[in-house]
Design brief:
Elements (H helix, E strand, L loop, with lengths): L1 E2 L7 E2 L1 H9 L4 H7 L8 H10 L7
Antiparallel strand pairs: 1-2
């Protein structure tokens, strides 16, 4: 688990992000769940989900 440089409260845990997405959480909810302020971190979360093959772009 890594800590973001700009956002000290973020706990980047790919396994937790994948579990949350499979449980039905939205990308925005997951970003807030791991510690990003509202409106931040969604691109990074979406990128991880896309690389894992879970998120399909529209």
């Amino acid at each position: 688990m890594a800590t973001a440089t700009k956002y000290k409260k973020v706990r980047w845990n790919p396994a937790r992000i994948r579990r949350a997405y499979r449980a039905g959480k939205t990308v925005a909810e997951i970003a807030r769940l791991i510690g990003y302020p509202q409106g931040h971190g969604q691109n990074r979360v979406r990128s991880l989900l896309t690389k894992a093959g879970l998120y399909k772009a529209a």
